[in-house]
Automatic annotation (TrEMBL):
The keyword Transport applies. Residues 1-19 form the signal peptide. It is a multi-pass membrane protein. The lineage of its organism: Eukaryota, Metazoa, Ecdysozoa, Arthropoda, Hexapoda. This is Aquaporin. It comes from Glossina pallidipes (Tsetse fly). It comes from the Eukaryota. It is found in: Membrane. The keyword Nucleotidyltransferase does not apply. Its main location: membrane.
Length: 265
């Protein structure tokens, strides 16, 4: 495939990030920095739309330019999102973790998840129109073709992969947040991208129920129930387990080392 096609994909992803940043600024101006659930839902929907739009195009990159190119773009995008999303996560299990720690309510978890699903699923129409114009040869026939699932293993094994990798991601993020090393977000992005690539040929490496649903719900290769088991139950269980696991003295000592001992003293 030509570098022109890669340039078109790059331009689309950059355009999505710029549009999302403008939407955030408009939302911030409209609500005049007021705190509350409504602006939070807008920020979650915008983040989810940005995430899913870029990841739709990343599918094109992976299919035509390989997993290595996919990994580079995902890493750069993840670093960017870490800098501009603020408190938004575009991922429901982070809110579930907050609920377990008493930081939010079940109602807010449900509403944030709903906003993320709306943003992530509705943005596909914009992506579909862009693909329909076929500015690049890699977009030919992609706008209306049937999608195929990325799950290449047994659904229960897929759920275990998504769950275990999500657990590792969350433990890594929690550790980095407490240790606060230089280039923390870059390290976190590198770990997450590495785990995605490791799981890519097995479950797809989504580690985010909203992202998986927006991109692969109803695709050939798994039933809707199997999709829920792998991408919702698997990932959410992995994230939820990370909360009590990270509080265990042995785990904290292993991950935080001497810093944890100092805090105990």
């Amino acid at each position: 495939m030509s570098m022109t096609s890669l340039g078109v994909s790059t331009g689309f992803m950059v355009g999505c990030c710029v549009a999302a940043q403008i939407a955030r600024r408009v939302t911030n101006k409209f609500f005049k920095n007021e705190e509350g659930l409504v602006p939070t839902l807008f920020y979650e929907a915008i983040a989810a739309a940005e995430l899913c739009a870029c990841c739709f195009e990343l599918i094109i990159v992976a299919d035509n330019f390989g997993v290595a190119a996919y990994a580079v773009y995902l890493f750069l995008l993840t670093v960017w999102w870490g800098k501009v999303w603020g408190d938004a996560s575009a991922c429901p299990y982070t809110h579930m973790e907050d609920m377990l720690e008493g930081k939010t309510s079940l109602k807010e978890v449900a509403l944030r998840t709903w906003a993320e699903l709306m943003g992530g699923c509705c943005v596909y129409r914009i992506v579909q129109v862009f693909w329909w114009f076929e500015f690049a040869e890699t977009h030919q026939g992609r706008a209306f073709e049937d999608c195929n699932a990325d799950l290449q293993v047994n659904p229960y094994l897929g759920a275990a992969i998504e769950g275990f990798a999500t657990l590792l991601c969350r433990l890594a993020s929690k550790t980095l947040n407490e240790k606060g090393p230089k280039f923390c977000s870059i390290i976190d992005s590198f770990i997450g991208t590495s785990l995605v690539v490791a799981a890519f040929n097995f479950s797809g490496g989504y580690f985010n129920p909203v992202l998986a649903t927006a991109l692969k719900w109803g695709c050939r290769g798994h039933t809707n129930i199997e999709h829920i088991i792998v991408y919702w139950i698997g990932a959410c269980v992995g994230a939820v387990v990370s909360v009590p696991l990270f509080k265990l003295p042995y785990v904290r000592n292993m991950l935080l080392g001497s810093e944890y001992k100092d805090k105990r003293e």
